[in-house]
Specification:
heterodimer; A: alpha+beta; two-stranded antiparallel ribbon; 6 helices; 10 strands; B: globular
Chain lengths: 250, 215
């Protein structure tokens, strides 16, 4: 080839062209795929909220997590979720799209001292109400989040956890059924205090038969992720404490 | 006529055994330690790297005459990063669940030194077809070790394979656990991967003494 690729001018031009080409490819791809990605995220949120209140396709065996399929999730979400509330200070309003509120942004607003909105979902299944709270926290490497479904006695009816980048086989196991199922039946209250649920090592209760101890058995090799889950639950339920006090029955 | 010449076949087969990127060249160790606590993650990572290395080697090979040597490492990095982002975005749009499983590996794929190593050592000097075979071969060699390590770590550390309990229930003490067998908690932490890789290297070298360096 007749081009001297070692020349400085060639290097600069090559770098500039490469940046433009790569940037254009990625920008085109991102904008053309955005509607699909947004829709998938919306389905995933609906699936996660329904999962927490026990509307899922899990079998009886403690196997894998099975959501309501995406083609039916929209309908089921409308069937089961009776109210979507947005709590902003003392003001509580209803919104059809409260589930799209990005909790991470709202918590950042709270940190900055700006007004923030907290979404809460009221579901109904078998004539029983479920109060589903979104949660957001930190694991070992990156963000963790989830939903916790409570009844009026502040007993957990189900949870769903997810994570961005926890270690596969260790911290990533917070989204396994054998871990999430342990939370069901635990109370987030210790007396009248919103204590949440600790992820405890060595609590001598691996089958989690004791539902009065505000504790579930920890995951081996995932201490920091487990602690992150415990902190996330405690902080989240305390954020909603004022509202939860208005519905609590005992 | 054979599909591959003898030389082409060796591009694929050598990295599987006597020129393995992990056990012989000792590259890609970071991800071999980080994600092999379970078999599924090892398989997903292996498939992702096969794709990125196959395509990446071809792209770099096609560009080899126009890449300025001064910034070639940056160019290689951009190619890997772009490929990985494209895969990630396409999966997010069309296979959302799978993209969530892959999310944790994205950063690890970009920094995998085997990929950069093959771009630098092979694709910059060879044509696209040979580079493709070399990329696939090295990624397979990497994947085989990852899957082997993941298999032993998940089996001995958690008593499961691909999430299915194969040795019984450790809490209810059924199956093998009824005999007093316990899972080895050490196997699920990263240092155990070094020991498993070490054992594989030992087995490999004792089977083929030519691999042992002279002092």
């Amino acid at each position: 080839m007749g081009v001297d690729t070692d020349k400085n001018s060639y290097t600069v031009i090559f770098a500039a062209v490469m940046v433009v080409v790569v940037g254009s490819i990625l920008a085109f791809l991102a904008s053309s795929l955005l509607p699909n990605i947004k829709e998938n995220e919306r389905f995933a949120k609906q699936q996660n909220i329904l999962y927490a209140m026990g509307v899922n396709e899990n079998g009886d065996d403690a196997g894998s997590v099975n959501f309501i399929p995406t083609d039916r999730v929209g309908g089921e979400f409308t069937n089961y979720i009776k109210e979507q509330l947005v709590i902003e200070g003392d003001k509580i309003t209803q919104s059809e799209e409260a589930y799209l509120i990005d909790l991470k942004k709202q918590l950042a607003n709270k940190k900055k001292g700006e007004p923030y909105q907290l979404p809460l979902f009221i579901g109904e299944k078998n004539n029983k109400n479920f109060y589903i709270i979104p949660m957001y926290g930190k694991g070992l490497w990156d963000a963790i989040w989830g939903y916790i479904a409570l009844d009026e006695t502040m007993t957990v009816q189900g949870v769903y956890f997810d994570h961005k980048g926890e270690t596969a086989g260790l911290g990533a196991n917070i989204k396994m059924r054998y871990f999430m199922d342990d939370f069901t039946g635990e109370s987030i209250l210790d007396g009248t205090k919103y204590e949440g649920i600790a992820v405890a090592k060595g609590n001598n209760d691996p089958l989690n038969k004791d539902k009065e101890d505000n504790e579930v058995d920890a995951l081996a090799g995932a201490t920091i992720t487990g602690n992150g889950v415990a902190v996330m639950i405690k902080e989240s339920v305390n954020l909603y404490k004022d509202y939860l006090e208005t519905i609590r029955v005992n | 006529m054979a599909l591959l010449t003898k030389k082409d076949a060796s591009l694929i087969l050598d990295p599987l055994t006597d020129n393995n990127p992990i056990t012989i060249q000792v590259l890609g160790i970071c991800s071999a330690l980080a994600i092999t606590a379970e078999l599924e993650a090892s398989i997903v990572m292996a498939i992702s790297v096969i794709f990125v290395m196959g395509v990446g080697n071809v792209v770099i090979s096609l560009m080899r005459d126009i890449i300025p040597s001064k910034i070639r490492i940056i160019v290689q990095l951009i190619v890997v990063a772009t490929l990985v982002i494209i895969v990630d975005q396409v999966l997010k749009a069309f296979a959302y669940e799978l993209s969530k499983t892959l999310g944790a590996f994205i950063g690890l794929i970009i920094t995998n030194c085997i990929i950069m190593g093959r771009f630098e050592a092979f694709a910059l000097a060879n044509g696209p077809w040979k580079s493709f075979l070399d990329g696939i071969g090295n990624a397979l060699g990497y994947g085989v070790i990852l899957i082997l390590v993941g298999f032993f770590r998940e089996l001995l550390g958690s008593g499961t394979l691909l999430g299915y309990p194969v040795l019984g229930d450790p809490i209810m003490k059924t199956g093998l656990y009824a005999t007093g067998y316990e899972n080895n908690g050490f196997m699920i932490i990263p240092p155990a991967a070094l020991i498993v890789v070490g054992i594989i290297i030992w087995v490999q070298r004792s089977r083929n003494p030519a691999l042992v360096e002279e002092n």
